[in-house]
Design brief:
Layout (H helix, E strand, L loop, with lengths): L6 E3 L4 E4 L4 E4 L4 E3 L4 E3 L4 E8 L2 E7 L1 H27 L2 E5 L2 E4 L6 H13 L23
Antiparallel strand pairs: 1-2, 2-3, 3-4, 5-6, 6-7, 8-9
Helix pairs in contact: 1-2
Amino acid sequence: AMGDKPKEFLDGLITVDPKNKKIIFQNGCFLRYPELRWDDDLRGYVYQTQKKGKYFWKKIYGGLLVENIIQALARHSVAEQIRQIGKEFPLVLFVHDECVYLARENEADEALKFGLQIFKTNPFSWITIPLGAEGGHDVCYSK
């Protein structure tokens, strides 16, 4: 839709590269939409994806594209925050927006305070996002 030249959006937060069918973030990670093309029957853009080893066409629309971008930005943020926690404490588990790490029992309160502060701090200068965090500690994994 935009030709072949990359174009920056959101003050350079993302670059759309139509030739390579990518949305590129400032940290170099990207979202890719293989074989992106217009589909007259669906009256919209579709891209090729796979599930259980079978390829199929999936429609991409504005709301889904924005959701994918937001989820990617959240993933980049959380990954960097977990990396910072891992410099101080052994990592045990991380899934989506959760991080489990080890600390000595007598240091649990300080370890929790440290982790919460990391998760409340934006790890990137190239995006402005409000962040919050909650957590707890236990002698074994619990929710």
